[in-house]
Design a protein that fits this description.
By secondary structure, the chain is of the alpha/beta class. The protein has 11 helices and 16 strands. It has 2 domains: 274 residues, 3-Layer(aba) Sandwich (Aminopeptidase), CATH 3.40.630.10; 113 residues, 2-Layer Sandwich (Alpha-Beta Plaits). Helices cover 34% and strands 24% of the residues. It has an 8-stranded mixed β-sheet with strand order 1-2-4-3-5-16-6-15. The chain has a 4-stranded antiparallel β-sheet with strand order 10-12-8-13, with helices on one face. Strand 3, helix 4 and strand 4 form a beta-alpha-beta unit. Helix 4 crosses helix 11, helix 7 runs antiparallel to helix 8 and helix 9 crosses helix 11.
Length: 399
């Protein structure tokens, strides 16, 4: 493994920094302490900063020897509304908030790269360090873009990195094309006619209608969608009624839809609406259907992905540069990849053996109250980001 020596020497510092961030988690658009920490460190290292994009976002600017092209490196800063189950020294000090997805590690890896780049400006061009808020809830990438991220800091490529439990520590996985699905939510309210449960013929039971709709929704995946297209439709909430002997007036259903292609998503949304409204009409009820598209699919650009793989193959044994199989989770880095070519890679977080005594009983999976980031991968992630940016700026420009 070819790490940058100066970054590897900072492993202890990076670990302490990561654990400090972990102990002080902040939710979407509330990352004031984290943003202050990032801004203070970048300023100490002589890196000019801009604040306020996406409310709490921070952008650092590392200028090389002379003007040239520009590349961006992005890390997310927000935590999740989860009560942490771990009891080690750096566990969350804020009840109901936890860095359960490793954004504390992502921020630290980019800070490690930033510290090195600030002292090694032997490149031409500019490296933009993008510390983004609200990846989990709120679309912080989109909000930074709405505040002019790519207009104020024009770049020709952008790269991101996410930890992945289950992939061995020391391995990085990436692949071109769709790697994460779009994130979409729906809400269906079936409005019937309430009445006495012993006299259902005088009512229009919205629960019975909702049951028919639930079954029919699954036929969209099995009978309407092309078999080779991937999609998920999950109903996760169903609320109706308050009293055992009363048929309620309405029933509410909510859930999520995940897909890779816009065409498949269009089909699913259309068929859901048709099924909901048509089924309700058959039973004499009314359906109010809402469909919200949160994050688009994360689609890696082929050229940038191939370049990132080349960099990794120079740093790691070939067996530690893996192909990332697409998964149905979502990521708002997708907004950036829609605007600028780039690649989103996954760094192995291991199987949980790194966790200290006092960790929770659950597995070390993201969005799990027993999760903890693997500090041993911090130097690799920081070295990869710094090397990737410098080499991207050094490559010959296409004519």
């Amino acid at each position: 493994m070819q790490l940058i020596d100066a970054i590897a020497a900072q492993a202890g510092y990076l670990q302490a920094l990561r654990r400090d961030i972990h102990a002080h988690p902040e939710l979407a658009f509330e990352e004031t302490r984290t943003a202050d920490l990032v801004a203070d460190l970048l300023t100490q290292w002589g890196i000019p900063i801009h604040r306020g994009l996406g409310k709490t976002g921070v952008v650092g600017i590392v200028e090389g020897r002379k003007p040239g092209r520009a590349v961006g490196l992005r890390a997310d800063m927000d935590a999740l509304p989860i009560q942490e189950s771990n009891h080690f020294a750096h566990a969350s000090r804020h009840p109901g908030k936890m860095h359960a997805c490793g954004h504390d590690g992502h921020t630290t890896m980019l800070l490690g790269a930033a510290q090195y780049l600030a002292g090694h400006r032997d490149f031409d061009g500019t490296i933009y360090l993008i510390f983004q808020p609200a990846e989990e809830h709120g679309g912080g990438a989109r909000e930074m873009m709405r505040d002019g991220l790519f207009e104020r800091f024009p770049m020709q490529a952008v790269f991101g990195l996410h930890n992945m439990p289950g992939i061995p520590a020391g391995t990085v996985a990436l692949s071109p094309g769709p790697i994460l699905a779009s994130n979409n939510e729906f809400k269906l309210t079936v409005r019937g006619k309430g009445g006495h449960a012993a006299m259902p013929h005088l009512a229009v039971d919205p629960i019975a209608v909702a049951g028919q709709v639930m079954q029919a929704f699954q036929t969209i995946i099995s009978r309407n969608k092309k078999p080779l297209e991937t999609a998920v439709l999950s109903i996760t909430m169903l609320h109706a009624g308050d009293v055992p002997n009363v048929i309620p007036d309405s029933c509410e259903m909510q859930g999520t839809v995940r897909a890779y292609s816009a065409e498949t998503l269009d089909l699913i949304e259309r068929r859901m609406r048709e099924i909901a409204e048509g089924t309700a009409a058959v039973f004499g009820a009314q359906a109010d259907f809402e469909f919200r598209r949160n994050y688009p699919a994360t689609i890696n650009h082929p050229a940038e992905t191939a370049f990132a793989r080349e960099v990794l193959l120079d740093m790691l044994p070939a067996g530690q540069v893996a192909t990332q199989v697409p998964i149905m989770a979502a990521e708002d880095f997708s907004f950036m990849l829609e605007a600028v070519p780039g690649c989103y890679a996954f760094i192995g977080n291991g199987d949980g053996d790194h966790r200290l005594p006092g960790h929770g009983e659950g597995p070390c999976l993201v969005h799990n109250p027993s999760y903890d980031f693997n500090d041993s991968i911090l130097p690799l992630g920081a070295s990869f980001l710094a090397t990737l940016a410098r080499r991207w700026l050094a490559r010959p420009q296409a004519q």
